[in-house]
Design a protein that fits this description.
44% of the residues lie in helices and 15% in strands. By secondary structure, the protein is α/β, with parallel strands linked by helices.
């Protein structure tokens, strides 16, 4: 069999990372696939490692804007799938047009399916895009032969938003790159920290409305006002002007000289690993996720984690975190304060989180994914 993968809408972020990691460790032949053809933009295809069974198919139209890419996906992709003699159409980006082949799509983005989160964006182009994605992805999930979800939380939330259940589903969590595997460090008592050498919190994530970096900044400022020796480092690009302003204005007002706070913007993987190594603990304050890579990275990096209590975070990290309401700076401060004052608590959650992170491997993810793809392809062939 030949597997066709539509990566036309995987241009950056977790979706592209998932595809790259999956193909880097996959063994399609072991699951009945002699060849895999991937259609995508040059920036994505160039990141995929060479494999003897892989064909990277570049399409100039996929370098264009959304309208051009959507037109290619609807008109040209079905032809390419047939020309390449594919047995199955896999759409890891979440949307797939009508296809002459059986289709498997992935649920990657929870924002379109969360009405409260969509409302955060008011009357804006982002809100309009989320409304369009809600309808497009719901149609894709309903029409597909199968849907892959990353977490039980995503499955349940999307199912509640759809009038009919998908025909067939699988829950296959993704993995984590071994480069983030750092053993938990010994935890020091609060008395060993000072304003000169503070306890360092790290928050890695895109700066946008549902990530609530502004609330974390307020929480850390409150702890500093109590005389506690803490600092915070934010890492991640800003993709929403309102959120960027909410964070930067607070940092400028609370810490104009950067004595205890910083915002580093984008960092490459190597430098992110070093940021985890430098930190004393991680904080993650998102209120809407599917399966956040960043939370897994924090867990694997051996850090104690203070975490949002919204789904799917408790599903992933379980009891190995101190939870808080991500929209309440006072509750965030409570969680950070509790961890700061209790090194035994920090040691316990760091050890447990690291052990849980080791369950998420890319070889496991690839094996389960290709097994499921084979089952769907064989089932569809039998029906036809």
């Amino acid at each position: 069999m030949i597997l066709g993968i539509d990566a036309s809408n995987l241009r950056h972020g977790g979706g592209r990372t998932h595809l790259l990691e999956l193909l880097a460790v996959a063994d399609p032949a072991a699951h009945g696939f002699a060849r895999v053809v991937v259609w995508g933009a040059r920036s994505t295809l160039d990141q995929i490692a060479d494999r003897p069974w892989l064909t990277r198919a570049h399409e100039p139209a996929l370098e264009g804007g959304l309208a051009m890419r959507t037109a290619w996906q609807s008109v040209e992709l079905p032809r390419r799938l047939i020309q390449s003699q594919c047995a199955l159409h896999f759409a890891p980006g979440g949307t797939a047009p009508r296809s002459p082949l059986p289709r498997v799509v992935m649920c990657r983005n929870m924002l379109p399916f969360d009405a409260a989160e969509r409302e955060r964006y008011g009357l804006s182009p982002t809100r309009a895009r989320l409304e369009v994605l809600l309808r497009a992805q719901a149609r894709s999930f309903a029409a597909a032969d199968a849907v892959i979800f990353l977490t039980r939380h995503a499955h349940d939330a999307v199912r509640a938003a759809m009038p009919h259940a998908p025909k067939r589903v699988a829950i296959i969590p993704h993995g984590i790159n071994p480069r983030f595997d750092l053993a938990p460090r010994p935890q020091r008592a609060l008395a060993e920290y000072s304003y000169a050498k503070p306890f360092r919190w790290l928050y890695v994530s895109t700066v946008t409305r549902y990530k609530h970096q502004w609330a974390v900044a307020e929480a850390v400022r409150a702890l500093r006002a109590e005389g506690l020796p803490v600092a915070v480092e934010f890492v991640g690009l800003g993709d929403d002007a309102q959120s960027v302003n909410a964070l930067s204005s607070r940092l400028n007002a609370y810490d104009p000289h950067g004595a205890w706070s910083s915002w580093k913007g984008h960092l490459p993987f190597r430098e992110i690993v070093e940021a985890y190594r430098r930190a004393d603990a991680a904080v993650y304050a998102s209120s809407c996720e599917n399966m956040p890579n960043i939370l897994l990275e924090s867990m694997a990096s051996g850090l104690p984690v203070a975490c949002s209590d919204r789904g799917p975070m408790p599903e992933l990290i379980g009891p190995a975190a101190v939870y808080f309401d991500p929209e309440d700076p006072a509750d965030i401060a409570r969680a950070l304060r509790a961890m700061l004052r209790d090194p035994a608590l920090r040691a316990r959650v760091a050890d447990e989180a690291h052990a849980r992170a080791m369950r998420f491997s890319w070889p496991r993810c690839a094996g389960e994914t290709f097994t499921f793809l084979r089952e769907v392809a064989q089932s569809a062939a039998h029906v036809r």
